[in-house]
Amino acid sequence: MLSVLINTHLLMAARRTGVKRFFFSSSACVYAAGKQTIADVVALKEPDAYPAQPEDGYGWEKLFSERMCRHFSEDFGITTRVGRYHNVYGPLGTYDGGREKAPAAICRKVIEAKLSGSHEIEIWGDGEQTRSFMYIDDCLKGTQMLMASDVSEPINIGSDELVTINQLVDIAERFAGIKLTRRYLLDAPKGVRGRNSDNTLILERLGWAPEISLEEGLEKTYRWIFDQIRLAHPVSEQVAA
Q1: Residue 31: active-site member
Q2: What is the distance between the alpha carbons of residues 163 and 172, in angstroms, rounded to a whole number?
Q3: Domain residue limits, the chain
Q4: What is the fold of 2-240?
Q5: d(CA 35, CA 12)
Q6: Which of 29, 82, 107, 229 is 20 to 30 A away from residue 205, measured at CA?
Q7: Helices (H), 101-186
Q8: pTM of the full predicted structure?
Q9: What span, in angstroms and rounded, lies between the C-alpha atoms of 115 and 31?
Q10: Are residues 201 and 46 in contact, defined by beta-carbon separation less than 8 angstroms?
Q11: Catalytic pick from 31, 58, 135, 184?
């Protein structure tokens, strides 16, 4: 409800003040749940948002707001651009507290296991659920390119490098130089079984798609989170030693 009100008020204010170009950050959560039920998922194309079956609550809000952007454009002449973000991550992001995304959470858990000497990690689900993760620099570049373009329809802004959560842990373990015992919480929240971005349209329309590899982006994220944890708990280094 609050997100719908924010989006509605922003569009109304844009119309009232004569804004010429308006960007709406949508989400891959708009896509039909029935197309995300297996780990070896077919990458999601923009038309896959219909027939509508988005994530309950959040996904419906995003899809509804996409429609509002279209109608404000058609009815009031505001140029709107809509980017459907897929799992953005990177340094300076939230990495604890329960609201963090999987890359940051996995990095934090691996770092804590290394510093504490426990060498154990808790994973939600069986670890075989799949996702693609987009580094923040790609997100910003894609957003700027879309905003300056003539693309009026919603478009995916996301990496198409599909990985399992177990593979995500593998990468973080390599950065840490350790191998952890994995405890799987099969009754924990785990979202859809598989989700990936089809980048055909963004390549056709913008001549570009997110290109920073998960290995490269995750290492930068891991190093930044490691520094934050080390600064917050300097004694942890002595425990690790």
Answers
A1: no
A2: 13
A3: 2-240
A4: Rossmann fold (3.40.50)
A5: 34
A6: 29
A7: 102-116, 136-147, 165-176
A8: 0.92
A9: 39
A10: yes
A11: 58
